[in-house]
Structure formats: structure tokens, C-alpha cells
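Intended use. Records like the one below are meant for learning the mapping from a protein sequence to its folded structure. Do not use them to infer anything beyond what is encoded.
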Amino acid sequence: LARLEEEGTPKEAYQFYIDTRSYGGVPHGGFGLGVDRVCSWL
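Structure written out for the chain above:
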């Protein structure tokens, strides 16, 4: 939030994201199965 204030960006543009993060972050980054991982798996 401090960075938004530094840049002068209105918080309303990111309010949906700020509300989501008020409950905490996600426990993991997920599982990215990209083309490179599929090729290395084969």
C-alpha cells in the first residue's frame, strides 16, 4: 500500500486485490506444468 501511495496510484483500481490479500496469502505457488517440463518428463 505504501508503494501505491508513493506512485500516486488510486487504491480503487486495486481494491479487489487488496481485499483478497487481507485474508492472507496463498500457501503455495502452485504447479506449473509448462512445455519445458513436459518435454523433460518425456
